[in-house]
Specification:
The structure is a homodimer of 236-residue chains.
Chain A lengths: L1 H5 L3 E5 L3 H12 L3 E6 L5 H16 L7 E6 H7 L2 E4 L6 H8 L1 H4 L3 E4 L4 E2 L7 E2 L7 H8 L4 E5 L5 H5 L10 E4 L3 H14 L6 E3 L6 H6 L1 H11 L4 E7 L1
Parallel strand pairs in A: 1-2, 1-4, 2-3, 4-5, 5-8, 9-10
Antiparallel strand pairs in A: 6-7, 8-9
Helix pairs in contact in A: 2-3, 4-5
């Protein structure tokens, strides 16, 4: 764990759902100081998460050195050097507005959300698509943030443990800030993604493709019977 | 070629563009009788295709036994036992209306088109998506046709020569008629797709995911520098 400690960061995870909890727990076990943010401080999910993540650190004698904290979206955004948007995609813009523009300014904002609309039942449709995307909306709403889209093409288990799915398989990054993509790539490597499997798709506009992939993922989930799935990109 | 001859079919290919020509040529070399259909008979592209495909058959002493013909959309649809929609996706409904409902009735209609909209420049957007798809529109417009979507996730070269891309990689089928999917699967095997790589995604609704994958394909094309690309589906 010493290697991880060398690059210990304060990370703000926005979102208290399965994706937020899974990412936040993994990051704490990697030695980071993670603040989970929700609509209000001391919410049930975030409070339970702090307890379980802290217990996990204690159980290995604190060797990982990570720290689990919770608060509002603004608390999480303000405390983090790197931020992760793991909120429900349909409400991400609201959540980030609550986080507050000054708390996002200059930060690497890793967007893992999908703008899923379950109001018509299954399969979900997308609240934004085709000529725009959630990632682009977030970048437009917060021009000072350095938005990088990644991890939205796999489920939470695979995000933090890519080796569940055997062999090489792809994870994508896109965004307009090269340095932010580098930071995000380092974070992906820490999560277990081999560097050759991390594919840079270019600018923030590539969010359209990454988000519009979701209906195919849902079909593949159904066809294969498992959410522990991913795609490998093969070329001649 | 004898194996191919045993299952020789009359195939109508609607569309005279690169995709139509590439598929039609391959099918002729496999021994099938192919009628390429366009907006009018004796169009320049279709006429040139008949000449080149016929020359190709002649050059191997006619061993493949295939036959290349051309005509209108209605001619192609009327003559084919199996039909392939390889028209520009933005105009496919028009083309199929011209083909005429009686010519589609009961036929396996393999839809390889993408509803791409280039009117806003690159990257293309989709003329239909999210809560509907071109495949579903075609099936609704022609309830007697047995629509199967396939091959729209790879470029024309890969469609007819999947081995260009090394190793196993996926091709998808979806549609509401199990028999039509079986016929389509046999056709894919003839084109060179190994049966284990052919993934059945279920009913015609899965067209949404297959068509909405296109923006990601365009990004991958750009990132990898080749259109000879595809994805492999990997699971735990």
């Amino acid at each position: 764990m010493n290697r991880a400690k060398d690059i210990t960061k304060r990370i703000g995870v926005l979102g208290t759902g399965v994706v937020g909890q899974t990412l936040a727990t993994k990051l704490v076990t990697l030695g980071h100081t993670v603040t989970m943010g929700g609509r209000s401080a001391h919410g049930e999910a975030a409070t339970a998460w702090v307890a379980s993540a802290s217990a996990r650190v204690a159980s290995d004698g604190g060797a990982s050195g990570g720290t689990a904290l919770e608060g509002t979206f603004a608390d999480a955004a303000g405390s983090g050097e790197v931020l992760i948007n793991a909120t429900n995609g349909a409400h991400s813009l609201d959540a980030l507005a609550q986080a507050g523009a000054p708390n996002l300014e200059g930060k690497v904002l890793v967007d893992v959300a999908n703008p899923l609309d379950f109001s018509r039942g299954m399969p979900p449709s997308l609240t934004v698509r085709n000529t725009d995307s959630l990632g682009e909306q977030i970048q437009r709403a917060h021009r000072g943030a350095r938005v990088v889209k990644t991890l939205n093409t796999v489920n939470a288990d695979v995000m933090v443990d890519p080796a569940i799915v055997p062999g090489g398989h792809a994870i994508f990054v896109c965004g307009d800030d090269a340095g932010a993509k580098e930071t995000t790539t380092s974070l992906l490597v820490e999560l277990g993604w081999p560097r050759p499997d991390i594919i840079d798709l270019g600018g923030i506009g590539a969010c359209r493709g990454l988000e519009m992939y979701l209906p195919l993922w849902v079909s593949l989930r159904q066809a294969t019977g498992t959410g522990h799935l991913n795609i490998r990109v093969v070329t001649e």
